[in-house]
Design brief:
Layout lengths: L2 E4 L3 E2 L7 E5 L2 E5 L11 E4 L3 E5 L1 E3 L20 H15 L2 H18 L1 E8 L9 H12 L2 E8 L18 H15 L8 E7 L7 H14 L2 E6 L3 H10 L4 H7 L7 E5 L5 H9 L3 E4 L1 H6 L7 H7 L3 E3 L12 H15 L6 H15 L16 E5 L11 H7 L7 E4 L2 E5 L2 E2 L4 H17 L2
Parallel strand pairs: 1-5, 2-6, 7-8, 8-9, 9-10, 10-11, 11-12, 12-13, 13-14
Antiparallel strand pairs: 1-3, 3-4, 6-15, 15-16, 16-17, 17-18
Protein name: 8-oxoguanine deaminase
GO molecular function: deaminase activity; hydrolase activity, acting on carbon-nitrogen (but not peptide) bonds, in cyclic amidines; metal ion binding
Family: Belongs to the metallo-dependent hydrolases superfamily. ATZ/TRZ family.
């Protein structure tokens, strides 16, 4: 069926003033001003909508929805924040609570206009060995694309790392499960719904050997690599103390300076490091909301892009962001980057990071843009709320006036959100069940 998405208020695409035509899950035609499609079977009247490419979230920790604004962790920077929450997570994240945390995060993301999400799950207490299987099941249930990032930690407090002993796994267990998950789920083909990345957590939670072994697996299975890097000054100091080098030098030593890699945060890089990352096409996921909440610092987005690094956008963990709303993250990215640079940073920059830039970080050229041949992944917003009244430029209005909820979301040509509600999810039940599960994380203080 050829569907003409007709006459939107505005659309983030070139020569598509009268909309787009989709067929078999892809965009097959852009309809310019004064034109009509060559052929179509049905029409969707988009005259109430502003349309953008589906947002692509390149860094998250879904399970952390269960500890938003947790009393033990609020008003702290990263290291003390982690030390407060690691024991709580280790004790209370079970397959049941993990499933609900994942389900809620994915649903919340989709409702904000997100069509592809990457989660960096690194916590594997006893009993949670099937975490990646749970995430795939939940993504497939909702119908959202996902990069399942098989994270890992094998450096605990007794080894000089940050997490408690119960939160980590041994290297053999980690590598065996990484290979299992890659063999079972990784689909690098165009239009795929599930891809796998390997994601050792951070320099202060994994060994050098595990970082190097992960590179070998990534090359064998043609997958991406992801880790936290350069998030805080504490992390820089940790690397200098334990490895006698800065984080980017460490990355180079373990073989991670290549185009398979995208990093979370990437804040505390000097000029030479920015140049080196760009030269090797290492991507950086900018996490503006989390960076502000934890007072981590400001990502050098303009310098990184100029050097050659893809820059994407992520909400980061729902306990360091306290929501899973990527459209809100777009506005935060605009604001913090204007403060970092100047007012010439535009809404187009912020939207580009959340779409094309994020897709590049994930190694995908089939999503992130409304163009012929791309997947039919789009987010539709109305401007009916009071917050939008008086808005002149519709696309700028979305970002500057604080859009946060999509009226409709399309993935691979199918409607996944209609009238601001996911088509396959009981929101009231999810809120009730997730809220009950989250109480356990408060009771354990």
């Amino acid at each position: 069926m050829r569907l003409w998405i007709k006459d939107p208020i505005a659309i983030l695409a070139e020569n598509a003033e009268r909309g787009v035509v989709t067929e078999d899950g892809a965009i097959v035609e852009l309809v310019g001003r004064g034109a009509e499609p060559a052929a179509y079977d049905e029409i969707f009247d988009a005259s109430r909508h502003v349309i953008i490419p589906g947002l692509v979230n390149t860094h998250h920790h879904f399970f952390q929805t269960l500890t938003r604004a947790h009393p033990s962790a609020i008003n702290k920077e990263l290291f003390p924040w982690l030390k407060a929450l690691y024991p709580i997570w280790t004790k209370n994240v079970t397959p049941e609570t993990f499933r609900l945390g994942t389900r809620l995060a994915l649903t919340e993301l989709m409702m904000s206009g997100c069509t592809t999400a990457a989660d960096h799950h690194y916590l594997f207490p006893a009993g949670l060995e099937g975490a990646m299987d749970i995430q795939v099941e939940e993504a497939q249930r909702l119908g959202i694309r996902m990069t399942v990032s098989r994270g890992s930690m094998n450096l605990s407090e007794k080894d000089g790392g940050l997490p408690p002993d119960g939160a980590v796994q041994d290297e053999d267990t980690i590598l065996a499960d990484c290979e299992r998950v890659l063999q079972k789920y990784h689909d690098p083909s165009e239009g795929s719904f599930i891809q796998v990345a390997l994601s050792p957590c951070a320099p202060f939670t994994v060994t050098r050997h595990l970082m190097k072994e992960s590179v070998g697996l990534a090359e064998k299975y043609d997958c991406r690599l992801h880790t936290h890097l350069g998030e805080t000054l504490d992390e820089n100091a940790y690397c200098e103390h334990h490895f006698q080098c800065r984080p980017v030098d460490y990355l180079e030593e373990v073989g991670w300076l290549n185009e398979r890699v995208w990093l979370a945060h990437g804040i505390h890089f000097n000029d030479a490091e920015v140049k080196k990352l760009g030269h090797h096409c290492v991507g950086v996921c900018h996490c503006p909301t989390s960076n502000m909440v934890l007072a981590s610092g400001q990502c050098r987005t303009k310098e990184l892009e100029a050097a050659g690094s893809p820059v994407g956008l992520g909400v980061d963990g729902s306990a360091s962001n306290d929501n899973s709303n990527l459209m809100e993250g777009v506005r935060h990215a605009l604001m913090i980057n204007r403060l970092t640079y100047d007012a010439t940073v535009s809404h187009f920059d912020a939207l580009r990071w959340a779409t094309e830039g994020s897709a590049r970080c994930l190694g995908r050229d089939d999503i992130g843009k409304i163009a012929v041949g791309k997947q039919a992944d789009m987010a539709f917003y109305t401007l009916d709320e009071l917050r939008f009244s008086g808005g002149g430029d519709p696309l700028a209005t979305l970002v500057l006036c604080g859009a946060h909820s999509a009226d409709r979301v399309m993935i691979a040509g199918d409607w996944k959100v209609e009238d601001a509600v996911p088509v396959h999810m009981d929101i009231e039940r999810l809120r009730r069940e997730h809220g009950e599960a989250a109480k356990r994380f408060l009771e354990s203080i």
